[in-house]
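Narrative of accomplishments. A recurring question from our advisory board has been how the design workflow behaves on a single, concrete structure rather than in aggregate. To address it, we present the structure tokens for one chain from the evaluation set, followed by the sequence designed for it. No filtering or post-editing was applied between the two.
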């Protein structure tokens, strides 16, 4: 090997070490690796541009952006309401089936994000009994199709970059179905090992938002559970004001009455979900101000509001603003916002009028923090366009009428033109980390080829072909990919191992598709570590799990997954 080969190999190994040490910053590690290789001319300008504009990578990015519109609809929330039942067995089965099917067609991270709130707020079962099965089902569902997980799309982008035919939409399905069945049974058998923990999700850091039920609302006469008020994303119904009576512990069987004031706690940016409920109005709207212009402020010690209620000071006329939500550090506020005595240091979210900025008393009373941008929701025609458009794009690509890249580009254009999301939303939610990781990994694979590392590796395998059978090499590729997935992340593992796996297949004159699938399925085999797969990390925090919880349930699932995956890859694709 040449000096260049040793240098690139050192960068490759340093990248792995960096990913293990800085698990929360994989994009930074990959970005630095690409910059070093580019600066030392290990990759050319043309190769860097080619890495950034890889068709498979662009397909993944656009698909993730299109899924934003689907997240803004009621589809997943309405389905989620049907999942939770009094019977744990029935709930588990429904949750597993729904998550697997949804994750096969949608981004599995979006599916888990949507299901978190219904599971955490359900009155029947501890969330810790359901959240790990939710994540595992999303991982398994993602293995069914090309678009089920970002890992499969990343592998496909590397396949295209190697000038190989694109992977088919259903190339993963047969192996994936076997994994769903075997791992589903294993997970069910070991579900008794899941912890049972009571959790309180309302904290002093949450904003409190007051809403009112109109007499004509369709919510009146139905229970909290029937209305789906316990299935919101990052918003929790904590109190009901009924006249002068305050209901602090809101049962799912509580029947909503006309003129009830519902007090929610949670993420203020998710407040637009409340617009989906007929006859439910936010406190600030009674002042006639739009919710399109929100500002977050902190009350100054010398403010005229100190010790007084919003109602008594005439807040609207004084500041040309209305209070949407209140947060008090170190203390949980309660009751009607209008009757709450304001204290110095209180955080307020204000719906502001046109004269707000010109009022001279604003800076005397408040410390201005920032604008608050709400997550918008779709309804009416836009909601139908988002849902049917997304399904049409996936189906057309699945049956081969339109290439996947073309279908998602057309879908993105339709969603933009119809106002299902704005260009600003796309910029705000743009998955820049994934773009950096994948494009840098592709650049790293170019460097391995340019420097002769891959050729040297292939020569080593050829000279010792007796010691490396295709079966042994396939198992080795799978194990290395799996270990890297548990240690770093699934996307990084796939990107790093792919050039090695393809080189092995070429040297051994084996079927490259089998080795490619070993990388794809190995990179989705994250069940033991909560850090290797994004859905695991999401439920790890939400379910207040410990590492040992993942190990106890993850080890048997991982063993069942690995044995099934390797066996079925050999049976389906051959060596």
């Amino acid at each position: 090997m040449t000096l260049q080969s040793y240098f690139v190999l050192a960068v490759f190994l340093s990248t792995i070490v960096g990913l293990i040490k800085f698990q929360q910053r994989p994009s930074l590690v990959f970005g630095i690796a690409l910059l070093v290789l580019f600066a030392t001319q290990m990759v050319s300008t043309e190769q860097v541009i080619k890495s950034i504009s890889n068709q498979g990578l662009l397909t993944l990015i656009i698909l993730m952006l299109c899924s934003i519109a689907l997240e803004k609809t009621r589809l997943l929330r309405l389905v989620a309401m049907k999942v939770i039942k009094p019977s744990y067995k029935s709930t588990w089965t429904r949750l597993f089936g729904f998550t697997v099917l949804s994750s096969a067609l949608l981004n599995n991270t979006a599916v888990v994000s949507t299901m978190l709130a219904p599971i955490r707020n359900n009155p029947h079962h501890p969330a810790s009994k359901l959240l790990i099965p939710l994540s595992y089902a999303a991982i398994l569902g993602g293995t069914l199709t090309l678009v089920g997980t970002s890992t499969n799309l990343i592998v496909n982008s590397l396949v295209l970059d190697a000038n190989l035919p694109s992977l088919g939409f259903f190339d993963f399905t047969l192996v994936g179905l076997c994994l769903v069945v075997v791992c589903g049974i294993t997970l069910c058998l070991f579900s008794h090992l899941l912890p049972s923990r009571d959790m309180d999700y309302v904290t002093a850091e949450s904003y409190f938002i007051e809403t009112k039920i109109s007499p004509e609302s369709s919510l009146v006469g139905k229970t909290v559970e029937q209305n789906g008020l316990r299935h919101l994303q990052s918003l929790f119904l904590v109190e009901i004001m009924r006249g002068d009576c305050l209901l602090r512990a809101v049962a799912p069987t509580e029947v909503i009455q006309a003129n009830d004031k519902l007090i929610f706690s949670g993420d203020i940016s998710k407040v637009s979900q409340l617009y989906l409920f007929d006859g439910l109005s936010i406190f600030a709207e009674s002042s006639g101000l739009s919710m399109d212009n929100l500002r977050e402020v902190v009350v100054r010690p010398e403010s005229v509001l100190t010790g007084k209620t919003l109602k008594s000071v005439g807040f609207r006329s004084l500041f040309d603003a209305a209070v949407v939500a209140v947060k008090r550090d170190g203390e949980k506020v309660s009751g009607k916002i209008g009757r709450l005595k304001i204290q110095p240091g209180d955080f307020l979210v204000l719906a502001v009028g046109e004269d707000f900025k010109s009022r001279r008393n604003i800076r005397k009373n408040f410390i201005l923090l920032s604008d608050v941008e709400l997550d918008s929701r779709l309804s009416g025609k836009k909601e139908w366009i988002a849902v049917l458009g997304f399904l049409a794009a996936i189906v057309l690509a699945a049956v081969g009428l339109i290439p996947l890249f073309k279908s998602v580009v057309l879908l993105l254009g339709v969603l933009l033109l119809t106002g299902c999301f704005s260009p600003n939303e796309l910029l705000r939610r743009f998955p820049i980390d994934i773009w950096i990781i994948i494009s840098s990994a592709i650049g790293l694979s170019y460097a391995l080829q340019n420097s002769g590392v891959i050729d040297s590796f292939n020569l080593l395998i050829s000279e010792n072909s007796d010691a490396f059978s295709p079966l042994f090499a396939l198992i080795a590729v799978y194990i290395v990919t799996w270990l890297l997935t548990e240690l770093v992340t699934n996307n990084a593992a796939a990107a790093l191992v792919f050039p090695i796996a393809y080189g092995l297949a070429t040297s051994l004159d084996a079927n490259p598709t089998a080795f490619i699938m070993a990388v794809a399925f190995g990179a989705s085999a994250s069940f033991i570590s909560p850090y290797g797969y994004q859905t695991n990390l999401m439920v790890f925090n939400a379910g207040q799990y410990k590492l040992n919880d993942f190990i106890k349930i993850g080890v048997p699932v991982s063993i069942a997954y690995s044995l099934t995956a390797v066996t079925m890859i050999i049976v389906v694709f051959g060596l």
